[in-house]
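Ticket #4471: structure export looks truncated?
Reporter: QA, pipeline team
Priority: medium

Steps to reproduce: submit the single chain below to the structure queue and open the exported record.
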Amino acid sequence: MEANENGLQDLQQNEETPKKGFFQKNFPWFVWCVRHMFDWWMRLLILVFLLITLTLIIKFIDPEFEYVFLMGLALFFVSVGNGIFCIVDLCKRRIVGGIIGLVVTSYLALSGLGLAFFTFCMLAMAAEDHFADDLKLPEGIELTEPLEPGEYSVEHPSKKVSEDSFQYQVITVANSEKGLDKKAVCRVPALEKLSSMPDGRERLIRYLNDSPEWDVYEDRCGLYAARCFETDGKNVYGSMHYYYRNDYADWTWQYRLGIGLDGRSWYLSEKVNKTRFSVSEIGLHQAFSIYSNGKFVLDIFEANKTTNRPMTAKTLELLEKEFSVLLSEDTEQWAKTIASDENIRKNSQPDIILYNGSQGGIYHADIWCNPGEPGLLYLKAFEITQGTPLSEDRIPNAKAGYSGDPNEMFLREMGFTIYEGNWGQYYGARFEVWFKPDSDQPDRKLFEKNFKIEGWQR
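Actual output as written to the record:
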């Protein structure tokens, strides 16, 4: 009897403490995760892990848009599934877990949906536009083929930047500890005096237009002048919109200088008479200094490893020296301050030379002309066989160089993209060079030239 009772007790003890299985014995962490998989905090942890993984993949692997689109959809649907579990938690009176889960899940679901929508738009933009599917090169019309990028380098050889140049002096102080106080304003007294002179604006524009170190053009803020740097790959790298930096991939400073000649900043969203400080993704301290100088607005942007704005301080010093000369009535003195411009041809004829860019449809143009008066140059482009305008309102402009000698040609450069068509689909295009006089006279076409081009495939 006693033996039977002992056996019964052993059986009951074995039932209460079952033997550990293979997974529980060898992979207890796996069993623990499975047991808690549907807990609200574990579900959120999995979603956050998915979001971090997706972010790292996009940042470091740079997958194709199709894969990013699918990953965004996956994150969205997984988040929606978790949202259903959160509603169940609320129904079972698990209030804290349900509310926290719904809040975080909503954010993750919107992130996934937003990512999927963005990549879908990019995929839609990348689709071929079929513009040139049925186009053929016109017969009986001479078409000039754009030159290769290497030929542009031959025509525009980079030179060693002299140590007394504006560019060299500004670059040299990058990341220096000496600079400006955070509350210091950006004023150039000579620029303010020019602004108050009856002919000061005309003086400044003529000087900037004659100097090869400035580009004057019309933009969203009106007439604007941007400072140009030599970009030979050794001293500085250039990018779009006159931004310059010291390296292509991993830069330690960045710089931009411009003057709004119509009293408006190029940075439309920035407040005037204020410097906005921020930190870039790579840890550089950025400073947007936008200050009115009379009727002009001075834009100075720099990013480097210091918060003291050393490049801005040097810029103000050099601009004061540069523009002080314009206050004199001695126009010959002005000429001495302008760097020698080799972009002038004697006894020449108007011409436009097109160079291929880094991808099909991206072009750089050299325009040689002399309208004989101050004004603005701009391009118009048309497909030849049907006369369809190409990339309207996307081709830039430039202030024209001019003189009284009709055989003296001045160079103006423009970079632009033709969006109609796709890579490898060549068609004929007519490029027209137009001139808008400052005298408010009607615009006039100076000359035209036909080219064999292709469109940029987005």
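Status: closed, not a bug. The export was complete when the record was re-opened. Leaving a note from the reviewer for reference: Residues 10 and 139 are 102 Å apart (CA to CA).
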